[in-house]
Amino acid sequence: MKKQKLPGENISLKTKKSEDPAVMEWINTQTNLMDSIRYLIENEIIQNRIRNLQTVIPSERNISLAMAEQAAGAGEVAAAEPEPVIEDEIDDEDIESWI
After folding, report:
1. Distance (Å, rounded) from C-alpha 3 to C-alpha 23?
2. What percent of the chain shows pLDDT beyond 90?
3. Which residues contact 53 (CB under 8 A, 6 or more apart)?
4. Contact in structure between 62 and 20 (CB atoms under 8 Å)
5. What is the tens place of the pLDDT at every residue in 47-73?
6. Residue 32 has what pLDDT?
7. Are 63 and 26 in contact (CB under 8 A)?
8. Shortest CA distance to 65 belongs to which of 21, 18, 28?
9. What DSSP string runs through 43-81?
10. Cβ(99)–Cβ(92) under 8 Å?
11. 74 or 40: which carries more pLDDT confidence?
12. What's the predicted TM-score (pTM) here?
């Protein structure tokens, strides 16, 4: 069993030699990397509770391809959305005409 981390202790993070360029760009864009990672962890906990992500994430993934597919899909979704229906407000004159 691995040693439990305690608050205030260091953790290490190492990128892969084959790291996706988008991941490296994200890392290099952060002004406070640890706070950004902490924010992502907090949101994961809020959405899915505490779990071992290794049991649910694919071992191989391509973020650049996923981003391209998402961008293409977003364009299709935006084009397919119906125009919003704007309903007129009912005023006293409308009610009087119904009586």
Report:
1. 28
2. 55
3. 44
4. yes
5. 999 999 999 998 888 887 888 888 888
6. 97
7. no
8. 21
9. HHHHHH-S--GGGTS-SS--HHHHHHHHHHHHHHHHHHS
10. no
11. 40
12. 0.64
Q: Let me know if 61 is exposed, middle or buried by CB neighbors in 10 A (0-12, 13-18, 19+).
A: exposed
Please report, as a single letter, which amino acid is at residue 74.
A
Given the structure tokens 């125009």, which residue do they identify? Answer: 83
Torsion sign (Cα): 74, 78, 82, 86: positive
DSSP class of 89: P
Q: Which among 52, 59, 57 is positioned nearest to 16, based on CA atoms?
A: 59
Q: Determine the Cα–Cα distance for residues 73 and 67; give it in Å rounded to an integer.
A: 10
